[in-house]
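Hey everyone, long-time lurker, first post.

I ran two proteins through the pipeline my lab uses and got sequence/structure pairs for each. Pasting them in order. The first:
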Amino acid sequence: MRGADVHASGSGGEHGQGVDHEFLALERELSVFLRRARANSGEMAREVHPDLEAAAYGLLVRLESTGPQRATDLAVYFGVGKATMSRQLHALERLGLVARETDPADGRASLVHLTDEGLERFTSVRDARRGRYALKLADWDRAEIAELARLLHHFNERSED
């Protein structure tokens, strides 16, 4: 359904009326996608290091894509408290995957970055994951893949607010 049809499906009462079917379908598909993504993050985290928590895998993704960052900036990006971020970063440091260095812009602060070992382990797992995506999407048109990436990016940008 597009345009005016969306509104036509969204009026009425409890049994199918007043239900916006497109948003229900979106919610259902996002729920499945997120559940699978969480499971995949756990698997990928264990591939990076057997003791790595699933939630910490996202930190590696962010640090690899942005370079060194302050812990406070990471906490804001992920929408978690400073204590949670500190705990996750300490765990990554203990595993030798990240390290801290003094922020050249502010000697009182530190920047977190991937260690050589952290980068090597992360890129190995990431490259294998990309290979699995390529297999799953082998029969998709490249334009469809680009459109999916564009739409997910747009959705993620809106979700930051």
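...and the second, right after it:
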Amino acid sequence: MSEEALDAVERSMVKLRRGMSRQRLGRAAIRDHNLPVDVQVLHVVDVIDEGPDDAGQEMSVGLVAARLGVDASRGSRIVAEAVKSGYVRRVASQEDGRRIHLELTAEGRAVVEATRRTRLEHFAKAMSGWTDAERTEFARLLARFVHGYDG
């Protein structure tokens, strides 16, 4: 990749990260769908909706914290808020009854769907002048980039 192209990718990713870190889309979803939830709880619900990394793995507080980039105690507090809000439930593990894993409730799934609709609307607007072929190619390349990027 040329230095010019790499520089353009880096600058675009920084701009995108800044926009996402301001949690603009999360706040828009809360506003658009009148969700009585904190943005951090939306992040927890999204992470749980993604599911575990590997077959046989269960969603745990530790996995949620790792994906959110927060320490275990902060992750535990945010998950507790999601449980208190009724979007997530703690369930005894099928593998080991002493362990607990996390699942979305019906209300949590509704929040995921509402949030996804808002994000899709924003992304569709950003790509409104694009052809279907351009959208398909961007989706392919972005997925490839994300898969190859290990943070």
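Reply from user beta_strand_b:
Welcome! Quick read of the second one: The two ends are 19 Å apart (CA to CA). The chain is about 65% helix and 5% strand.
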